[in-house]
Fold this protein.
Amino acid sequence: MMKNRIVDEEIMLVRYYPNYKTTLEWYQDLPLCKQVDNRDTAYDLDLLKRMYKYLNKHGDLFYIKYKNRLCGDVCLQPSGEVNIVIAKPFQNKHIGRRVIKEIIQLAKEKQIPELHAEIYAFNTQSQKMFQSIGFAKVDDEQYALVI
């Protein structure tokens, strides 16, 4: 069973557990839904539960805790795919960058040789974050990092 992981003095990755009251709020933010899933509608509780169930079954799923507040989630799949969401009020604090560096460490421990992230062409904020820690653009919406 995957344990919690300390990223630094401000950030901890907390192993997934059902916490829909907190997390649904993130996925009700329409600009965030567009940024993450290129969708124009918010998540409902059923979709959120199905997403978390899938990610938890198929990867290492964590909540991101910043200064003792849950602010997002991140998943490392065995294929090397990385999914990350940071709630709007917590963006632009370098949380994502610090979390992905920890996910790179987790991937090394699991002997996953390459990570990749699908980032929509209009999501320049995420593109810049992933590129700042060494991911390279491999096509219009795919970024990869050989570990």
